[in-house]
Amino acid sequence: MKHTIIYFIGVYDTLDLFTGKLREAFETMDYASFVYDARLPQSKDALLSLLAESTAPEREFSCVTFNNLGYNLDMEVPAPAQSVRENDACIQKGGTRNVWEYYGIPYLNILMDHPFHYEKPLRLAPETSVVLCTDRNHVKYIRRYFKNIHQVDFLPHAGVELGSRHKPLAERGIDVLYAGALPIYTVAKMIPDLSSIPEVDGQLMAGDVLAELVHHPDRTTEEVIEEYLKDRRSDIPDKRVQEIIVQMRFIDSYATSFFREQAVRILVENGIRVTAYGTGWDQCEWSGSPYLDYRGKVLAPEILPSMNDAKIVLNTMTWFKAGAHDRIFNGMLAKAVVVTDDSTYLRREFTDGRELVMFRRQELGTLPERVFDLFGHLERAQEIADCGYAAARDGHTWKSRAEYLKECFLT
User: Fold this and answer.
1) Whole-structure pTM value
2) Residue range(s) defining the domain that contains residue 262
3) Looking at the structure, do residues 28 and 137 belong to the same domain, yes or no?
4) For residue 250, what are the contacts with CB-CB under 8 A and spacing of at least 6?
5) Which is nearest to 282 in space by CA: 297, 298, 272, 270?
6) Are 16 and 147 in the same domain?
7) Residue 113 DSSP symbol
8) Separation of CA 34 from chain center
9) For residue range 12-54, what is the model confidence (pLDDT) as tens digits?
10) 11 plus 152 within the same structural domain
11) E strands, 10-158, where?
12) Which of these, 186, 199, 281, 191, lies nearest to 232 by C-alpha position?
């Protein structure tokens, strides 16, 4: 029996990169592939033809996708040929059906962001869905608020290695690399009409919740919003709390942006040259600093060569408190020293100063000292880079994640 995995590409370059690596890994395990390219209108007809012409048990299918891509793929189902009584309550009619449900195909949906960004697709998720979250807190969120989703699990981010030969740190041309946008400059479209939240003063809540996150950055956005609401209105039901969390999710991006900017700024203002990619860095009030080398926005695969030329890859989380980010594993696989804010997952997985360097967001002021120490002890920094590379290569590639998916969901 041949097992074919269906993938979706052609929407986001970052997801295409991850998808390509998963596909490579699964093909080494003897899975066949069908690639649905959203840019090609003929992709849907080709997939439906493949499914219609295949017969079980000779052929089996699964879909492995990211961020709900293809969740609502539908098809026309003809009415049954046999006649039925018009008043039969169980009459089966033709019409539109979800492809994954109609064929009983497992739909493995890997979320790279917080689930509160995907309210509608998760509510309408196929019955065959398995949701994989990159933060353990996101798993809890799905289990609490999405009773329609019966299978949810934790699947950490993974990294991509470019080539197999890596320059030693002493020969690299970039001191510190930060690859990621400042979301504060793109988040405006997420801000709702705050007067549409009658239970509280929405404007006041936004300011207070953001202040709490800045002062206590180990807390999650949903936790602080719920606490705020229930302190003021103990009668608010869970369903309404979750609706308000979705409305106020823009605060998450503000908190992320605040610490992301502060991490780069404190290095730059202490005379450490930072090379930055992504939107927004040219709009900061300190953007004119000679220690900021801003190189604009590029596609995800184009960052990898720069990581291979960086001594330090700096990361700050997208407000993940129990997960990681692909920047961490990409940097490790580039044999750079990864310097990142921590999480409960990272603390369990790695040791500060052995495979990477971790700092607490509350101690951001110590970041320049730690970076200078790495530059001043380059042999020790090289040991961290080498150890980090080995750890990522052995356990944090997309091949590692594919092996987990095979073991848990594809056997």
Assistant:
1) 0.93
2) 169-185+253-395
3) yes
4) 187, 190, 191, 192
5) 297
6) yes
7) S
8) 23
9) 999 999 999 999 999 999 999 999 999 999 999 999 999 999 8
10) yes
11) 32-37, 59-66, 74-77, 95-98, 107-111, 129-133, 151-154
12) 199
